[in-house]
Amino acid sequence: MTKAVEIGGLKIGGGNPVRVESMLKIPLSDKEKCYEQCAYLAKLGCELVRAAFPSVTLTEDLAWLAKNSPIPLMADIHFDASLAVAALEAGVPSIRINPGNMARGIADVVACARERRAVIRIGANSGSLNSAQLKRAGGVRSDALAAAAEEQLKILLDQGFDDVILSAKSTSAPETVRANSLLALKYPDLPFHIGITESGFGRDGLIKSASGLALLLAQGIGDTIRISLSEAPEEEVRAGYSLLKALELRHRGGALISCPTCGRKRIDVMGLAALVSPHLEDLPDGMTVAVMGCEVNGPGEARDADFGIAGSRGGAVIFRKGRVLREVPLERAAEFLLQAAQEDF
What we know:
By secondary structure, the chain is of the alpha/beta class. It contains twelve helices and 15 strands. The protein folds into two domains: 5-246, TIM Barrel; 255-344, Sulfite Reductase Hemoprotein, domain 1. The strands form three sheets. It has an eight-stranded parallel β-sheet with strand order 8-7-6-5-4-3-10-9. A five-stranded mixed β-sheet has the order 11-12-13-14-15. The protein has a two-stranded antiparallel ribbon with strand order 1-2. Strand 13 (307-312) and strand 14 form a beta hairpin. The radius of gyration is 23 Å and the shape is elongated.
């Protein structure tokens, strides 16, 4: 059980659900489009969004977005402590910094955060490791990453500030897993944000992120997650919920299971699954819907599904918890399946 912190009304850690977050991919200077992106992400279930804050000239834009966004903001800041203070004074409830990169002014940042009850995320990244840190860790990058995050953490703890979220990310999934596992052993009470930085895009990016985050989440490490992809932020949010759903940690909308198909299939499994998938978000959280190719894999192997459809000699059958409800024409199979699922709840 980690300590709970609160960002704009959003509780993180302390037994609360693992939170799904993303990052705005539009400059703050275009605040209206930033707002539109926040609103869309909120609709998809995004619970925290990070925004790059590279210049004090963007302070008014940040303040406006912090006031109007339906999702709590976290300002992402590098090197300049004055920017961190400006972000907090603009009303942002959380900031992401690397305290070791702020040679001066960190005491002012801590004082401002304490006064405003803001949360500070400490972000250590494999790309920022220096030769001294690597040497002390014997050249083991994961150990150097954990040590770097700990160095940043101690800067804040030494000032009596512990409303923090700890984060140590690498482009390598194994490095990220080991670094966070080492940190969690030392600081089991602190909430963690986990992610694989610069994981890429498409299938490879998704699998790289999922492979590392699943290993951490299965150990109970991770209070917020981001699937960092080069794609639009909504894909990060969808992927985050898909991962939590697969690990049975959170359920948003319905879940789809479908057979891998074989020579026995009587229906176009992929085609039907594609028709059903867009409607899953409208189903009750945790409901399971199955699309199966034949009678063998249908009501039998998918008997735990709340509702399902399976190919049959006459077209398709709709079933609930393994019990066949009716046979329907193949061309209307998806329609009848969704109707049955929606009417039951």
